[in-house]
Amino acid sequence: MIVDPISSPDLADILIESAGVAADRRLLMVPERDLAVARRARAHGFAGILPRTDEAPLMMAAIRLVLAGGEYFPCFEEVEPPLGAAASGPVERLSKRQREVLEEMRLGRTNKEIAKTLGISIATVKLHVQAVLGAAGARNRTEAVTRLSQGVLVRVED
């Protein structure tokens, strides 16, 4: 079940009401990544959040991950840059875990090997690979690794 509280100003009421509805897995649509909202959603039994700022392929991967039994709380893994510092490039904007997956991709590892090495599920690896591909504007792993390693990025237009 995907809960979209766009019309309700009171998130707490939405979280409590949705907990009373029978559903195997719950996702909460949110305007943007928000650590406090993610923590509240998780505490109310949600399996993840779907920030409207995420691109459609990433949102679909997150939905598939949750349906497969995983969780999607992207802001839990994000590393905050120091105050006054802005991320300078796409690699720096990746979360710590996404950079670890990128390094494993650079080494030519499969999703299964990456999952085992990092101690995460294959579904989570797939989600991080999608984020890396999106950051690089790449169609495949080799292209993403090449672009991010060399700093060559191409803006993909929809």
Written account of the structure:
There is one protein chain. This protein has helices at 11-19, 35-43, 56-67, 90-93, 96-106, 111-118, 122-136, 141-150, and strands at residues 2-3, 27-30, 48-51. It is elongated and about 50 Å long. The protein has 158 residues and is mainly alpha-helical. α6 crosses α7 (122-136). The chain contains 8 helices and 3 strands, in the order βαβαβαααααα.
Spatial ordering of strands, largest sheet:
1-2-3
First CA to last CA: what distance?
A: 28 Å
How much strand content do the residues show? 5-15%
Largest sheet: 3 strands, parallel
What value does the Rg take, in angstroms?
17 Å
Stretches where pLDDT is under 50 for at least 5 consecutive residues are 79-87, 152-158
Mean pLDDT value: 74
**Secondary structure tally, helices:** 8
Q: Report the order of strands and helices.
A: EHEHEHHHHHH
The level of helicity is 40-55%
What would the principal axes of the Cα set say about the shape? elongated
Task: Count all strands and give the number.
Answer: 3
**Which structural class do you get from the secondary structure elements?**
mainly alpha
